[in-house]
Amino acid sequence: xxxxxxxxxxxxxxxxxxxxxxxxxxxxxxxxxxxxxxxxxxxxxxxxxxxxxxxxxxxxxxxxxxxxxxxxxxxxxxxxxxxxxxxxxxxxxxxxxxxxxxxxxxxxxxxxxxxxxxxxxxxxxxxxxxxxxxxxxxxxxxxxxxxxxxxxxxxxxxxxxxxxxxxxxxxxxxxxxxxxxxxxxxxxxxxx
Length: 192
Fold this sequence. Notes:
By secondary structure, the protein is an all-alpha fold. It has helices spanning 2-21, 23-42, 45-49, 53-63, 70-77, 79-110, 116-142, 150-168. It is built from 8 helices and no strands. The longest helix has 32 residues, at 79-110.
């Protein structure tokens, strides 16, 4: 499922959104989407039970005659599972793909064209090492945290990550000063 969402977001979202908004804006949006997903995951189950989507999902399951399927019955009994499967997980997967593609695009623009292949190979090694280190660091960070509190702690980490992204890719930058303008034939633009 994650791969399917990743392929769809890579294929349909990342390229079109990058062309429209630019890679830095997509990195900021992906970090914000990760935070929203973490906050949604941290919401108590009672929040999801009051959701207007629950009766809609129950009616849809009954209409499709799948409401007796064990997984569907479990999802309808615990709406947080339904929210996770239909909203939170796809949002996280899409944000992951969009941020990876956007960061890779900015990375390739930052290195000289002759060094792009070596730079991408180095980036792949770095990303692979992060993929190994992240679960280890996550285990250390969540050691001793009660399972019910882990989503809130994760939301705090995502908030810190969003802050770091906003520092690295500020949404508003001061415009560069315009070059001095001189009159035609003026020597005021000549620098000796």
